[in-house]
Amino acid sequence: MAGSAGWGWPSHEIFWLIRVPRVLAAFGTGAALALAGALIQLVSRNPLADPHVLGVTSGASLGAVLMLAFAAGLPLAPEIGAVCGALGSMTLVFGLAWGGMNRGLSPSAAPGTVLVLLVGVMVGTVCGAGVSFTLSVANDSQLRNIVFWLLGDLNGASLWWPIWAAAGIALLLVWPRARELDWIARGDAWAWTLGVPVARRRRTAIFAACLVTGAAVATAGSIGFVGLVAPHIVRLTGLRHARLLIPFSAVFGGVFLVLADTAARTLIAPVQLPVGVISAAVGAPLFLALLLRRHA
Amino acid sequence: MSARISLQLENLQLRAGGLPEGRMLIESLNVSIQSGERWVLLGPNGAGKSTLLMVLAGLVQPNAGEARLNGHRLADWAPADLARQRAWCPQFWFDPFPVSAWETVASAQLALSPQADAAQVETTARRWLSEFGVGHLADNDVRLLSGGERQRVALATACAQDAPLLLLDEPSAHLDWSHQALLQARLKRWSSSGGTVLAAVHDLNLAWTLASHALLLDGRGGALAGTREEVLGAGTLSHAYGVPVSQREEDGRRWFRIDLEHSA
Description:
The structure holds 2 protein chains of 2 kinds.
Chain A: H1 12-44, H2 56-70, H3 77-102, H4 111-137, H5 140-151, H6 161-174, H7 178-185, H8 188-193, H9 198-220, H10 226-236, H11 242-266, H12 275-295
Helix pairs in contact in A: 1-6, 1-7, 1-9, 1-10, 1-11, 2-3, 2-4, 2-5, 2-9, 3-4, 3-9, 6-9, 10-11, 10-12, 11-12
Chain B: E1 6-15, E2 24-34, E3 38-42, H1 49-57, E4 64-69, E5 72-73, H2 79-82, E6 86-89, H3 101-112, H4 118-131, H5 147-160, E7 165-169, H6 177-192, E8 196-200, H7 204-210, E9 213-217, E10 223-227, H8 228-231, H9 234-241, E11 245-250, E12 253-258
Parallel strand pairs in B: 3-8, 3-9, 6-7, 7-8
Antiparallel strand pairs in B: 1-2, 1-4, 4-5, 9-10, 11-12
Helix pairs in contact in B: 3-4, 3-5, 4-5
Protein name (chain B): ABC transporter ATP-binding protein
Keywords (chain B): ATP-binding, Cell membrane, Membrane, Nucleotide-binding, Translocase, Transport
GO molecular function, one term (chain B): ATP hydrolysis activity
């Protein structure tokens, strides 16, 4: 593994205390976002959905940014803020959309899910306004930390296990019944007529997606792209069924973010780029190449 | 489909969208549907054909009255048990993600018996696709099929669910003449082996040859149910559709057409 001050083997301590936890955090974050993306796309029947439409990303960002601006001295300030923000926005989205999530079977659309996503986008918009407000009142030294955090940064992400725990819980919640998500994606009323408890599966999938998205933002800030694209790349390889799509999206997202983070650390070392910059700048052309080759 | 079913509608009332403030679609419908019968559901656009099918599928609650399947209120059935009794084929399909035709057909079988042998399920799915003349498209992505091909995949999916009662919303939509004939043949075979069919149809002449019974909605609360001879006539159809329909008899078979010269 490459060190940030040039190529070569890092010392024993750096390897075990910094590199390994960081790789684990990167893998967990990428896996979590990809998992959330796959779930949201399936239950919303929308290939363009990504985890950020749930509003949890903005909620967690607002929490983290508030802590960075007003309580930066506390240990784990942004992480604690992000967890509180994620939980708060999740509660808000679920509370506001609860009625719709449990009703609403229609032959052609998924009104319950549409309601959740619209509520999520609105909660996200309000939280985004809060982030902008905080940015405009923050002083210069706070600003750099905040901006880096918002761009998605694994620098100093030493706490790797919470994101693994969140992703593990989410997988346990959805994977045993993943096949039913395929049928819900083909029509939730139709899935109900096959005996699938659609409302419950939808609730569980959205909850799992919120959980891992919140945990991912708390670990590494707001990283775009992975959640949207990982499921599509896995589909392009022929793994279409939710039972395969969900775990393989997670593996792909994890590997992708580890590689992106390694590049972010080493490309213009000793300067460390935010991983979000690399994941978007490399990921989007990679996806386009796969897509266009497929349709050529 | 060896299992026999009976479907009883008692004073069933239906409003648009199933909402209490919705437009009155059906005032009070009493009808009894038995195994081996083929019912066509007719009426003008927006008369409530799809809503009624969704009520019978258990997806929508009627505004008043009851629907009973085998003596039990539809609302009291567990969804998984209901899935073994009736298959519902909606009017519109939207496939957001790539999936092959045979896997779409297999979903219904897998949902009902998760432990089923995978090879057996695939064989059955491919057989039903062949029954509807789309066996050669079994491995194609459903998103790339034509309207009529997708419709036949949907019909194969409904049949593969192996529930005795088929609830089909416009099964002949997008089908060319030869495949309308194929559809008729398949549905007649279904009912002759004890199955029951309820299908919303717009083509009156297709309806006549397809049906043993008919249910005609006028979209203003009125509903007429009975054998096809009782329900399908120039008078009843003219009233329901609001255009002059004339009728011609030929060897016991009725032909319908709109009298364009006499319509506004």
